Known about the structure:
By secondary structure, this protein is α+β, with helices and mostly antiparallel strands. It has 3 helices and 2 strands. It has a single domain, classed as 2-Layer Sandwich (Alpha-Beta Plaits), CATH 3.30.70.1290. The chain is 34% helix and 10% strand. A two-stranded antiparallel sheet has the order 1-2. The model has no long low-confidence stretch (mean pLDDT 88).
Amino acid sequence: xxxxxxxxxxxxxxxxxxxxxxxDEPKNGTLDEAIKGLKLSVxxxxxxxxxxxxxxxxxxxxxxxxxxxxLRYLHRNPVARGLVSExxxxxxxxxxxxxxxxxxxxEISSDWI
Length: 113
């Protein structure tokens, strides 16, 4: 039986060897199950082995201030790593959604802020 986890994505950036996600709790199941499902889905579509590290780190966000801090951190990550000079240059990110409401491959829920 395949379980579909429903959660809202508020921000993301896909880096060469990891991904940052700012999401809410899944409507069904737990966060660790949803992350496991996401990792499995990507792994099944990829030929790279291993694709993921076996761990993930989570952080609970309770305030608008912390939400904005985390969103800024993840969008600035490609710049901090020297991959681009401005966040808008990194295409695998939700940054352009917040900059000018550009629709990307991932639907962003920006009503939180």
